[in-house]
Amino acid sequence: MNFKLSALAAATALALSPVTQAGEVEVLHYWTSGGEAASVNYLKDKLASEGVSWSDFAVAGGGGESAMTVLKSRAISGNPPTAAQIKGPSIQEWGELGFLASINDVAERDNWDELLPSVVSDVMKYNGEYVAAPVNVHRVNWLWANPEVFQKAGASIPTTWDDFLVQAQKLKDAGYIALAHGGQAWQDATVFEAVVLGVGGPEYYQQAFVESNIQALDSDTTRKVFETFGQLRQYIDTNSPGRDWNVATSMVINGEAGMQIMGDWAKGEFTVANKQPGTDYVCVAAPGTSGSFTFNVDSFAYFAQGDADKTSAQKAMASAILSTDFQEVFNLNKGSIPARLGMDRSAFDACAHASMDAFVSSSQTGGLVPSFAHGMAVSEAISGAIYDTATNYFNSTDSAEQGVQQLIAAISAAQ
Amino acid sequence: MLRYLERSLPRLVLAPTAIAMFVCMYGFIAWTAGLSLTKSRMLPQWEFVGFDQYARLFANPRWHVALDNLLIFIALFIGISLVLGLLLAIFLDRKVRAEGTLRTIYLYPMAISFVVTGTAWKWILNPGLGIEKLVRDMGFSNFEFRWLVEQDMAIYTIVIAAVWQSSGFVMAMFLAGLRGVDESLIKAAQLDGASVIQTYWHVILPIMKPVFFGAVVILSHIAIKSFDLVQALTGGGPGYSSDLPANFMYTFAFSRAQMGLGAASAMVMLAGVLAILVPYLYSELRTKKV
To answer: Is the CB of residue A378 less than 8 Å from the CB of residue A205?
Structure first.
């Protein structure tokens, strides 16, 4: 029965996507670095074989900030691109403004509801209809460690935040920088997020930092979060302000520093430096978060087009993005894991396997939570408020209580 | 016909510029003022909410940091630039040798954009790369100079870089002013037995009052719209401790999707500029009439 169903699905898929499909997709994205650009080219070639031409509209810089500014001006002037790299709650904001096109027929045909975990598919839908296609899943709560440094310092890789402070002190005493960190607001927020999840657990995380529940925020847990976060100040080096994340990663690679808390894109830096997971570097969940998974999903949202050719090209692109071969190629390049479940995983490395396992298991236990540091959980206004508080607190000598009050004030002001 | 053309030609020639001015300056000022009264978030939405955005603006701690920083920056930047520029001008005016070369050296920073200035000073002030490392390598291992990475001091690094950039320009203004002072007045003062310092203080500087005024106006509007220097030098950090209002406006309007709030902060900045410019223009126009 199952076989028949899938055969039927495959047949309809073939029928619905004729080879002679004409049309063009204009795609706004900010994937311009080496590995990312290679992945985009793969998608381009794949679409070309289906008769869809690709007009590249790459806007580099600022983690997508410049791209979003361009997108806004294009949308206001009534000439949006066919697809644009938008993620998280921003998809809802664009949906509310009435710019997005439904790609629900493709999603139904290709069975997206079964391929995607519901936390991911919910983000892709506006008013119950798919308006965007997910490309990958990044896990943000990783701890990258250099085992050689740990061995020399006689420390062990920490699994809780209390243990982290003990081990970090050992590293510091042995003359290493315990935590490689770049003092930029988003990196401060990334570490803060790991502390929130590790100290408070996923349920607290969900209430306080996804639903912005003031009662949950005004609690002893939040105080403990700020206390732990504040103690990390002493384990980073004084030159950290303004440092880029990949520079911090290289400090772990060349043994200057013991560890870094960063999403799985950091793996690319280790790979480029010819380091092997398990021996040259270790990837484990950030302290206290082994059963949890903060996700950061990149996706393409589709803008309503007047032209029927463009609409069908758009749908071909959406379908190609969820195809197994694209998901594999793209995610091998990017260091993330495929957004669709149940794919062949032999090509991926140990860290990716760990990430995939955690993704599946945490989606069942409720430990799968959106990353607020990477714009997946709350609106830009609220995530901005959290950014401001986290970075301001981390760079000051404020007490935990002051941190809590600042956070509550900032979040209430942004709501 | 010809006479008509002759009479209206100046107006015709000026019309395109005037229209462009009205649309691009006053039109957009009005547009921003309108936006600041709406609930616009990611894109302009014309749903009016009165002065809500202004209330939210002044409830935002980051805005207050930016305003305080602006006050510190304006006071120090203008003060130090004026004093340094004036001293340089006076020294150069004492008929030193190679004045032309020296003048060029002092003026050169002016030719560099704020982005380059900011980046260069970022390296110079970075504790691991710049002055601190240099002095430590010379053997003073306890030397500390790390304003760039200290929350309370970061704004002063912006003052340093901005003064470095602009005091040469102030010097040029004062030098031109000094050259315009009538020699006979100085001679007269010397005959009366005034020392050099007394001559400058009581005779020359009072004559140069308009130059002071011009310099202050030019420097203060540079200060209020400072954006690129902060972006390049500190990125507003550590945290947001060295934010200036222009950086606040950009962040909230464009990357934080709070366009209404950003517009409100832009209007407050405009009010700040007007508070300086209007009295200046008023006094200028009044003296013209007399």
So the answer is: no
Note whether A391 contacts B252, CB cutoff 8 Å: no
- State the DSSP H helix or E strand holding residue B212, giving kind and residue range, or none if neither: helix B209-224
Q: What distance in Å separates residue A381's CA from the closest CA in chain B?
A: 6
Nearest CA in chain B to A72: B43
Angstrom distance (rounded) from CA B179 to CA A103: 74
Tell me which residue of A380, A377, A399, A397 sits closest to A388, measured CA to CA.
A380
B237 and A391 within 8 Å at the Cβ level: the answer is: yes
| SS3 (DSSP) at B202 | helix
Residue B68 resides in a domain = yes
Please give the full DSSP string across A298-325, using - where no structure is assigned: EEEEEB--S-HHHHHHHHHHHHHHTSHH
Q: Looking at this predicted complex, what is its ipTM?
A: 0.70
Task: Indicate the fold that domain A15-139+297-354 takes in CATH.
Answer: D-Maltodextrin-Binding Protein; domain 2 (3.40.190)
B238 preceded by a cis bond (ω within 30 of 0): yes
Nearest Cβ partner for B239 among A68, A396, A410 = A396
Answer whether residue B8 shows pLDDT above 50. Answer: yes
- Each residue's pLDDT tens digit, B93-117: 887 888 888 888 888 888 888 899 9
Contacts of B142 (CB under 8 A, 6+ apart): none
Domain containing B216 equals 61-289
Of B59, B151, B240, the CB nearest to A388: B240
Domain boundaries, chain A: 15-139+297-354, 142-294+373-414
SS3 assignment, position A326: helix
Residue of chain B whose alpha carbon sits nearest to that of A380? B256
SS3 A52: coil
Residue A386 pLDDT greater than 70, yes or no: yes
Nearest to A392 among B42, B240, B257 (CB): B240
Confidence of residue A18 (pLDDT cuts 50, 70, 90): very low
Residue B8 resides in a domain: no
Comparing alpha-carbon positions, the chain B residue that sits nearest to A237 is B128
A142-294+373-414: CATH homologous superfamily?
Periplasmic binding protein-like II (3.40.190.10)
Alpha-carbon distance of A136 to A298, in angstroms, equals: 6
- Contact between B235 and A242 using a beta-carbon 8 Å cutoff: yes
Phi, psi of B239 (to 5 degrees): 65, -130
Rounded to a whole number, what is the distance in Å from the CA of A380 to chain B's nearest CA? Answer: 5
- Supply the pLDDT for residue A363: 85
CB pair distance less than 8 Å for A380 and B148: no
Among residues A350, A205, A189, A376, the alpha carbon closest in space to that of A292 is found at A205
Q: Which alpha helices (DSSP H) does A50-157 contain, by range?
A: 65-76, 89-96, 104-109, 112-115, 118-124, 147-153
State the smallest CA–CA distance between residue B96 and chain A in angstroms.
43
Q: Where are the alpha helices (DSSP H) in B60-96?
A: 61-93
Residue B238: its chain A contacts at CB < 8 A?
183, 241, 391, 395
Chain B residues touching A375 at Cβ < 8 A: none
Residue of B nearest to A69 (CA): B254
- Report pTM: 0.79
Instruction: Determine contact, residues A141/A197, Cβ cutoff 8 Å.
Output: yes
How far is it, in rounded angstroms, from Cα A85 to Cα A207?
28
